């Protein structure tokens, strides 16, 4: 009777541990499922944001490149126009005052072009830097999500171990029931 009582007590303890493990396993499983769902949503969001930002920055870069090309074309056209005017006036032998005036205009146009070109290059560099920073941020978020997945996979491994223990508990209960039956 003492053995049966001890075995009954052991069965109750094992059953309680099994129930606790099953509850814990169920809770962990729910958490893993929620985390996987959240991870998937986060991953989709990150990819969407990354794609939108990348497209936005690429469009801006293309726009700046087009503006720089247009400024270069405008500069060349102005230079050609100025040369054509000077060549047309050469037979007239420009006096010093007119020559200085044209040189000043040419220098002003050059200065405007250089300033505009520098501003556009500066903006382009800023946009590229911003794009790189955003790209780095997104990569860090992706790494963090990978770590989270790894953690959830570890939790799932623990869940499997708990399930194995629950199976052992069931086997022990069966043995105990057989032992009781044999003792009766």
Automatic annotation (TrEMBL):
**Region Disordered: start-end pairs:** 116-138
Which spans does this entry mark as compositional bias, Basic and acidic residues?
116-129
Name-wise, this protein is: Uncharacterized protein
